[in-house]
Every structure is written in C-alpha cells, then in structure tokens.
Amino acid sequence: MKTMPPSPSARPAPLEAPAREPAQSISPRPRRPRAALGGAVAGGVLAAALVASQAAEPIPTAARPAAMRLRPAELEPPAEGIKVLVVTGIDYPGHPWQQTAPALKGVLEKDPRLKVRIVEDPEALASPKLALWDTVVLHFMDWEVPGPGPAARDNLKRFVSGGKGLALTHFACGAWDNNEWPEFRTLAGRVWDPKRRAHDPHGTFRVDIADRAHPITRDLEPFETLDELYTCLAGEAPVHVVAKATSKVDRRDYPIAFVLRYGQGRVFHCVLGHDARAYAAPGAGELFRRGIAWTAGVPPKPTAAQP
Ligand SMILES: [Zn+2]
Fold first, then answer.
1. Range of 133's domain?
2. Does 288 map to a domain?
3. 227: domain CATH number?
4. Which of 55, 135, 139, 191 has the fewest beta carbons closer than 10 A?
5. Which of 88, 170, 171 is nearest to 124 (CA)?
6. pTM of the full predicted structure?
7. 33: in domain
C-alpha cells in the first residue's frame, strides 16, 4: 500500500542514472484514506471494484469475457503449452486493467505456445496451485490498498527462486510498497520510486534495442510506441537491459525492458503498457511475447514481421 514515500536517504545510483528531480505524483488525484475502502480488509475483489469504479473510462463488458478469468480458488492451468498466469485486479485508477489484461493476453497468444489465463485478485498468488504454472505476470499495483499479503509474497518468492518465471508490466514496478515488502525491490530488479520523475508525458517515443544478441531481443528492430516512458525506477539488483528509450524531457536513456535472475528463476521486467493501445504496438507485443517465453525457459521466437 502506498502510504508514504520511502526514505530519501542514500539511495545508490539507479540503473541509468535518471535526473534527480522534485517528486512528482503520477496521479492528479488526491489519495483516498484507507478507510474509504471499507477498511481495505475486504480483499482484492472488493478493492479492485472500488478502484475500477474510479477509472477514467468505462470498461466495456465485451472486453471481459468470463472464459478468460479464473476465480482464485480455481487457478487450474491450461492442459498444455507454456502456462502463463496474468495477475491483475488492482491498480492506479488511470490504468484500466480490465482492458489491458485481455489486451496483453491477446498479444501473448500470438505465440501459440503461450497459454494465458487471467486472475483478477492478486491474493491468488497465495494459492498452492501457483506451482502448476510456468510463469507469472504481475499486472497490478497496490494503489491505496494493501498489496498481496505474506502468504502470497512468500509463495511468489518460492515460485521464482525455485526456477519458474516472473514478468512485470508497466506499473507493476510498484506492485508492493517498499515498506510492506522490501524483497520486492530485489525480485523486480527495479521498482517505482515516487521521489523520481514519474514519466515523460504520454506520447510517441522510440524503443531502442540495447542488446541485439540477447535471446529476447535478437534481431529485434527499434520500434515506435505510444505509451509512457518511465523515468521512475530505482534499485540495486544486477539487471541486464535489453531495451531502452531516450527521454524527450531530459535526453537521458532509461531502461524499458531488462532481465535478471532470482535464485533459479528468470525475471523479465518491461515498463511498457499504460493502456490497451500500448500493447497493440507490434514491437511492444513482440517484446512481451519473447520476454515472457524466456522467463519460462523456452527459446523466444519471432512471431511478427518486423517493420
Ligand atoms: Zn501508466
């Protein structure tokens, strides 16, 4: 739960040293007190509904076919293929996860090996059935509600360190507040630091390939996308940047996608994905497909013609 900024004391240099600037809120909205969520103990579903009710745009029912969704008690993986569990259900109100989760599923399944399901309650990470999946995609952020609790956190840590895959999209860099789960900073490689400038104004920018030899980005061409160029990441874990972009605001390079190892597991962290259009960009979809296949320990393979 984001309640207070992290300590401003002595943070090591970030990945590519974004400029130190005054704190900038991602949201123009004042934060609601925790009590506004009915004590915020009702669990992810209620919290998600409340957060979603404040989303800027109405969510079309058609974007949420029931067959895509799992109840947390189910979590049965697909019978075959690379089993990818997208975990969503809470986020900053400007992030329409009800639209972006299906959009992400759609672009991932252009690689027919990837079999994707969506669960709309981050507490599902606590399920013993998590171990049946190959990779987990964090597609949520604990905006004004508690992040998934200790059982979920321990289970996810065990899942990844034991050799499974983890991917993070967009504001999942803030899925847990540092105060509630310090280990998330190591697991994610880099996390949202609200003391930093959040992102360039929403707009078009070019994503450059930082490592054309890496399996995820091998021979991937630079691509244009309409998204937010995040400038807010902090962290110390050793990561390997595979894609980056140059800010139009300060002309510095920022990591867009990077990988790291966590125990025996593989982590792919990509900060693209502000809205459904962001996932529709061919290059972004290709990056997510390849990155998530890589987390599952299978060779990424190009699935779309490059521009
Ligand atoms: Zn965003």
1. 44-295
2. yes
3. 3.40.50.880
4. 55
5. 88
6. 0.80
7. no
201 C-alpha to center of ligand 1: Å? 10
- Span 68-83, pLDDT tens digits: 578 877 899 999 999 9
Q: How far is the CA of 60 from the centre of ligand 1 (A)?
A: 19
Q: How far is the CA of 127 from the centre of ligand 1 (A)?
A: 28
Residue 59 pLDDT: 39
**Is residue 19 assigned to a domain?**
no
> What is the number of domains present in the chain?
1
| CA 227 to ligand 1 centroid distance, Å | 8
Which among 244, 199, 202, 240 has a CA at the least distance from the CA of 223? 244
179 Cα: distance to centroid of ligand 1 (angstroms)? 22
Query: Which residues in the chain show pLDDT less than 50?
Result: 3-64, 66, 306-307
Q: What spacing in Å lies between the alpha carbon of 274 and ligand 1's midpoint?
A: 4
- Per residue, the 3-state secondary structure of 62-121, as one string, reads HHCCHHHEECCCCCCCCCCCEEEEEECCCCCCCCCHHHHHHHHHHHHCCCCCEEEEEECC
Q: How many angstroms is it from 112 CA to the middle of ligand 1? A: 28
Tokens linked to 30: 């004042």
Cα(22) to ligand 1 centroid in Å equals 19
